[in-house]
Amino acid sequence: MAKVSVYNMDGKQVEELELNDSIFGIEIKNHLMHMSVVQQLANKRQGTQSAKTRAEVRGGGRKPWRQKGTGRARIGSIRAPHWTGGGVVFAPKPRDYSFKLNKKEKRIALKSALSAKVADGKFIVLDELTLDGIKTKDMIKVLDNLSVKKALICINENNKNVLLSARNIANVATAQTNTINVYDILKYDTFVTTKAAVATIEEVYA
């Protein structure tokens, strides 16, 4: 089993923790991580863009001039695509960009992302993460103690003090164990979590 150091909020190592290799030590599947990220971004798209084709643009019903004899190029409508004010050739229309991934593929993609962080030494475990109040400077101090600049902080429960203290810090995001996703794990350099959160992840995804 892979082992990681467990730190306290002062950045000092207090113990070591063995990780479940079936979650944090699997063979990394880059293509599944890529598919998961693409799916998440695609599912966020509104797909409401719309433009008019030449059939939908107002006007242009009458032929501007006769077909022959004027010396000018033949034209059937002033709303032709190559005219100013004309329609769009392949006009975008409202559509649904979302697609589905199998549950097994999603699970392997998430495990691959977690395993990649462990393999890169970007997986930091705290013995606990508790703050007395909502203080951004206290959270910054904890991250500085861990030498972390861009991090995803994963906690086990809805800890209001931690969530609100980290909210205004640039390049820092928070998530609970039931909301972590491949995109956020890969987006932030370091995955910071707690022993309790690791136990929950191992219980849910084992």
UniProtKB/TrEMBL annotation:
InterPro entries membership: Ribosomal_uL4, Ribosomal_uL4-like, Ribosomal_uL4_dom_sf
GO molecular function (one): structural constituent of ribosome
Keyword rRNA-binding: yes
Pfam families linked to this entry: Ribosomal_L4
GO biological process, one term: translation
Lineage top rank: taxon: Bacteria
Ranges where the record places region Disordered: 44-72
Comp. bias regions, Basic residues: 60-71
Cellular component per GO, a single term: ribonucleoprotein complex
Keywords from the named record: Ribonucleoprotein, Ribosomal protein, RNA-binding, rRNA-binding
Stated family: Belongs to the universal ribosomal protein uL4 family.
Oligomer and partners: Part of the 50S ribosomal subunit.
Protein name as it appears in the record: Large ribosomal subunit protein uL4
